[in-house]
Amino acid sequence: MKLLVLGAGAIGGYFGGRLVAAGADVTFLVRAGRRAQLERDGLVIESAQGNLKTPVKTVLAEELGADYDVVLLTCKSYDLESAMDAIAPAMQGNCSVIPILNGMSHMDTLDSRFGKDKVLGGLAAIVATLKKDGTIVHGSPIQRVVFGVRGGAYSANAKAFADALAKTSVSWELSEKIEQDMWEKVVFLSACAAVTCLFRANIGEIMASAGGTEAIERTLNANIAIATHEGFPPRAASVEFSRNALLKPSPLTASMLRDLESGGAVESDHIVGFMLNAARKHKLDDTMLSIAFTHLKAYEARRAAGRLSPA
After folding, report:
1. DSSP-derived secondary structure for 104-132
2. DSSP annotation of 17
3. Active site annotation includes 185
4. Are residues 38 and 28 in contact, defined by beta-carbon separation less than 8 angstroms?
5. Measuring CA to CA, which of 45, 88, 179, 199 is 20 to 30 A from 239?
6. Whole-prediction pTM value?
7. How far apart are CA 242 and CA 215, in angstroms?
8. What's the pLDDT tens digit per position in 118-148?
9. From the candidates 57, 132, 185, 248, which is the catalytic residue?
10. How far apart are CA 300 and CA 311, in angstroms?
């Protein structure tokens, strides 16, 4: 299997690096500056699961050809259009793309561009950041990838990717119910993003505030109802996980809050907006999602106008 990883940032660089270390044929599609950094320093990972420094193969967009079996897509949702343009030369023949973006709405966009038969489902669970010097810092024990063909059908490319991951230390699953897995993640993630961004606080701080617990529970219950009406009722274990994470005091925040507090771009439409639209489609409780989405869009407007307060 020949794997192309879009970018060598925190997520793609981490999983791609672990695959390189296990002997997989991996190439990173990067910009010129990141290529120079990788050629000089190698791909560097700092992790309690094992540090890594290794040379890697890279390709620039203008050099990219069609000789790949799988493309691992790890961009942010707001970069999806340019990401699709970048990987298009590789998406020839029997090549498949495995997107591990947050949310769900990117699937229709990818299907329209490349064809549904080429687009697998996927998700990742990891806490990782990219330092200015190019080092990837893995900040927790979690390092998991779940992927599969929608509908549970067999795919030689999915099996080849699974075989490659089996040689690494990464936790992975070739799922026969990947759409169910993706819906369960967005139920949790969009609730976490909505409440922590809206209140600019972690779960423990929100719960310690008047009405905080009720606000979190209302948001989570709405998301569970949305997924159920979409035909993917969350399984008991998923509901228990979400309630344990969101309704017990902890320092948990969504990465979207960290992006917001640093003045960065946020995936408002792709995560909170997506669930808000689904709530309205099914005439479900949209109160918390609506307020959170307005908050995020107001932030985006201020950011675009250069009116954010100094950090």
Report:
1. STHHHHHHHHH-GGGB-EEEEEEEEEE-T
2. H
3. yes
4. yes
5. 199
6. 0.94
7. 14
8. 999 999 999 999 999 999 999 889 999 999 9
9. 185
10. 16
